[in-house]
Amino acid sequence: MDPVRNPFAPGAGQRPPELAGRDKELDAFEIVLERVARGRPERSLVLTGLRGVGKTVLLGELRSMAMRAGWGAGKIEARPDADLRRPLAAALHRAIRDLAVRHRDPERAGDDPVDPDRADEVLGVLKAFAMRSAPDGAKLRERWQPGIDVPVANGRADSGDIEIDLVELFTEVAGLAQEVGSGVAVLIDEMQDLRPDDISALCAACHELSQSRAPLVVVGAGLPHLPAVLSASKSYSERLFKYVRIGQLDRADADFALLAPAEREDASFDLDALDALYEASGGYPYFVQAYGKAAWDAAPRSPIGAPDVKLAAPEAESELAVGFFGSRYERATPAEREYLRAMAELSEGRDEPVGTAGIADHLGRKASSLSPARDSLLKKGLVFSAQRGQIAFTVPHFGRYLLTQP
Question: Is Heme given among the entry's keywords (predicted)?
């Protein structure tokens, strides 16, 4: 098979050639856009799931949908222990500019073009919000200067209290969108990595906007324990967001993710090959792409068969071992690797949670002595607390990979 025509594309956040199995989520967001545009109440959205299920890809698709609807949209990726103000300011700057450009176009603006002075006024508030990222007493050269070419509008969103400032900023941005009959979407990837103060502020801002029916929605994506993180910050977050669990593809969708791109290249897979590919990938979108790509390259001709998949599997697994599993395993200390290995042995390599007490018994250690390793793994995003007293891998098939390591 011609490797140049290989349609499959395993990659972090890279859109697959066929976004299979996500029609329900896309249709739900279409309804959110329509309801908010009509001034109807609607909750912000939180996507959760293991790594490799396509949360980042889906987030990007939702952003594209918002932009096609004439909304302003900005996307950020949260980072542990990093301040929210700078990336959020950059994302909203882009959203406001996109909103202004679209609604200054006479063909798109209709009766509600953006008033340039009003847009600059909101950008001035955004600039004031961003510049509060510098600590009090910081020297001028140490202060971050956002690339917003308007004067600072002091007195709004610049108190230094992130909860107060975020409510005021979102209110200003949503007000601008409402004036032109549009909306703004703020998309946050790796949401569980936001600092506790920022999580609390974000929940408060979403709560305020939902009460006023302002046309601004937040779409977050994160690991399975993200709802617990939000709930620990604000008890009402359980009712504030609409939670959508993103999992592996069922058999029909996994087959479609392989067959549709192949058919566009005048190729196909036989049924035995599809059986083998689903067993190897488990339906996880990233693995579907990885095994599909390797099977294409290994096959001499179409249709791709089960022997081709068997021949290709070591190549796919080698690539996953380095780029998907190995990079995460290398971040773990020896004590953390011991903990991970115990998890893998207890779960027998399956993607299932295990009890923390059982891990201690398995290692012949006191549970308290393992707490530092467990807490560090949680912070590194390698495991998550499935429920009280249980722990699970954030990466599918990670246990299976660990059992192959010496």
Answer: yes
Instruction: Specify the fold of 23-245.
Output: Rossmann fold (3.40.50)
Q: Which two tokens stand for residue 45?
A: 């959205």
Residue 187 to residue 220: CA distance in whole angstroms: 6
Q: Are 60 and 15 in contact (CB under 8 A)?
A: yes
Residue 403 to residue 406: CA distance in whole angstroms: 8
Evaluate if residue 151 carries a pLDDT over 60: yes
Those residues whose C-beta lies under 8 Å from the C-beta of residue 330, and which sit 6 or more positions away, are none
CA 179 vs CA 86, 89, 239, 243, 336: distances in Å: 26, 21, 28, 29, 53
Tokens of 9: 């594309």
Hey, is 128 helix, strand or coil?
Answer: helix
Mean pLDDT of 338-358: 93
Question: Is it the case that residue 331 has pLDDT exceeding 60?
Answer: yes
Nearest by Cα to 277 from 315, 243, 305: 305
State how far Cα 217 lies from the chain centre: 15
Of how many residues is the chain composed?
406
Residue with tokens 């697959």: 16
Q: DSSP letters of 20-38?
A: TT-HHHHHHHHHHHHHHHT
CA distance 57 to 288: 14
The CA distance from 156 to 134, in Å, is 17
Prior bond of 303 cis (ω within 30°): yes
- Three-state DSSP at 336 gives helix
Task: Give the pLDDT score at 143.
Answer: 56
Q: Per-domain residue ranges for the chain?
A: 23-245, 249-328, 332-402
Q: Cα–Cα distance between 77 and 80 in angstroms, integer?
A: 10
**Is residue 140 very low, low, confident or very high in pLDDT (cuts 50, 70, 90)?**
very low
Q: What's the rounded Cα separation, in Å, for the pair 21 and 107?
A: 35
Q: What is the pLDDT of residue 325?
A: 92
Q: What predicted TM-score, i.e. pTM, was given to this entire model?
A: 0.89
Question: Which range is least confidently modeled, 99-103, 137-141, 144-148, 331-335?
Answer: 137-141
- CA 321 – CA 72 distance, rounded (Å): 39
- The answer to whether the Cα torsion of 164, 167, 170, 176 is positive or negative is negative
Topology at the third CATH level for domain 332-402 = Arc Repressor Mutant, subunit A (1.10.10)
Q: Which two tokens stand for residue 326?
A: 């190995």
